[in-house]
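ok trying this again, last paste got cut off
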Amino acid sequence: MKKILLLSDTHSYIDNQILKFVKQADEIWHAGDIGDVKVSDTLKNIKPLRAVYGNIDNAEIRKEFPLNNRFTIENVDVWITHIGGYPNRYNARIKEEIKDNPPRIFISGHSHILKVMNDKKLNLLHFNPGAAGKQGFHKIRTMLRFEIDGSKIENLEVIELGKR
């Protein structure tokens, strides 16, 4: 079993409130717009980090992290990308691939809008953790945490970090 903390859109911001939850997880997943390599370095110095770069990320971050990160953890196929859309509104860049080879969990960031959706057509779960940083139009900073146990995805929890 793995305890996952999922965040996105930190935009160079990290604080003790985020780090408290980082320490409770087995792995950290970041869905892009990291903002500053200090954020990703801080996270990976505490726990293993899987991340993608976002549209605001510089060359240093783009060198370290891919545009798409697809992997299997336990028995679950996961795909993380920053700009990916959501069920029935997938981004044109990934639309055909996700239709032809859907993961079990599809994660994107970018919108700063927390979403958890079931795509019944493709039999996948879509997660967007919202934004953990203070940059953007969102009013509440959010993250998600959940557990993967074999092929089961369970104990999904929305974490509200307060006003941006």
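PB: full thing came through this time. The two ends are 32 Å apart (CA to CA).
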